[in-house]
Design the sequence.
């Protein structure tokens, strides 16, 4: 089968960043200025993001993985246990391993696909020092409930890291009835600006915290361990964000509400159009408003071969579907760091899950074509 499929219709891609002439113009202005790194645009981008999220400090870095790595290093997690959901891109577990921590993988909630609070709390051991709460596909994790559970158990020594890589623009109502943005939870949180994310700078990431001393150390770490010009206080990498990326990010943030509205409209139509199919869709916590970074679905019948056939049939119709995510318990890269614990929910979602196209370049007719293709491909794959 060719990459372009057998359909004569244009291919509907799984993802596409929301870019236009505005990003091109600001990148050109940066190039003309000659100031390409660690300038005013990076500082402004940090300010805009922290104000949007509601944090005291924001530290821009080279990518979302770097954000996790630096956060875990700044928290001094080496030698301690870090709990990481098994359903995710490998970055959180790799970051923990690279920081010298002991990675322990935990299964996810079968409805929301984020960490299950009760079973996560039950998994905590004396050596546990951190829990990564991932806002999977932009759906807010139940961080407040997790933190309350830790407090009830007298485990204030366990820090929560919110991996909000996918979740800029998502919110969750707090106990007082107000909305809090994803990225505003935990001792520290991280964002990613990869092209698959709602806001992109090509690559790029952000670390957010309300702890001034932690923020100061993170700024030092991202810049070769340099606390001030020529004063190197610890060995650190170069994980700075460029001025071009920051300029692009500022334009993206200006467009964020427009981007969110379109993504949410597409996702709402998908939910309506797929309601009668044998599919499990990711549930959203009560009080949440989700950015719809990824629209995932999981077959309730069949197996991996069924899912692969569905994806292949859709490709023939020039509709690109993607496999949902990864089961970290099966990754060779973690063999030395994480025991192969049983994660049946994760295993099932990875085996039978897939993602539908969702981006602002899609027209209403594209959305209807995706729905028709998924419906027909699902029926054929299950027969």
Sequence:
């Amino acid at each position: 089968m060719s990459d372009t499929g057998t359909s004569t219709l244009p291919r509907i891609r799984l993802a596409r960043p929301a870019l236009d002439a505005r990003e091109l113009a600001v990148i050109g202005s940066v190039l003309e200025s000659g100031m390409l790194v660690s300038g005013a645009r990076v500082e402004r981008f940090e300010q805009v993001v922290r104000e949007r999220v509601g944090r005291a400090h924001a530290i821009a870095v080279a990518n979302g993985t770097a954000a996790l790595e630096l956060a875990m290093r700044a928290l001094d997690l080496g030698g301690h246990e870090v709990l990481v959901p098994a359903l995710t891109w490998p970055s959180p577990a790799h970051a923990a391993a690279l920081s010298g921590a002991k990675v322990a993988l935990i299964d996810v909630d079968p409805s929301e696909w984020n960490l299950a609070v009760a079973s996560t709390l039950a998994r905590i051991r004396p050596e546990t020092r951190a829990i990564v709460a991932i806002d999977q596909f932009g759906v807010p994790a139940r961080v407040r409930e997790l933190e309350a559970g830790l407090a009830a158990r007298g485990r204030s020594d366990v820090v929560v890291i919110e991996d909000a890589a996918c979740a800029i623009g998502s919110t969750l109502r707090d106990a007082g009835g107000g909305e809090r943005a994803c990225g505003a939870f935990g001792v520290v949180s991280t964002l990613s600006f990869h092209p698959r994310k709602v806001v992109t700078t090509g690559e790029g990431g952000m670390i957010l915290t309300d702890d001034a001393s932690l923020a100061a150390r993170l700024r030092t770490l991202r810049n070769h361990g340099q606390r001030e010009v020529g004063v190197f206080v610890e060995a650190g990498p170069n994980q700075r964000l460029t001025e071009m990326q920051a300029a692009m990010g500022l334009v993206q943030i200006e467009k964020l509400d427009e981007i969110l509205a379109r993504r949410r409209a597409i996702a709402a139509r998908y939910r309506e159009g797929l309601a009668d199919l044998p599919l499990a869709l990711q549930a959203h916590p009560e009080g949440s408003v989700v950015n719809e970074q990824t629209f995932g679905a999981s077959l309730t019948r069949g197996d991996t071969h069924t899912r692969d056939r569905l994806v292949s049939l859709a490709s023939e119709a020039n509709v690109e579907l993607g496999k949902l995510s990864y089961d970290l318990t099966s990754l060779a890269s973690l063999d030395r760091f994480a025991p192969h614990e049983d994660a049946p929910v994760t295993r099932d979602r990875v085996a039978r899950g897939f993602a539908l196209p969702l981006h602002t370049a899609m027209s209403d007719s594209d959305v209807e074509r995706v729905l028709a293709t998924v419906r027909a491909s699902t029926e054929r794959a299950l027969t």
Q: What stands out?
A: The mean pLDDT is 96.
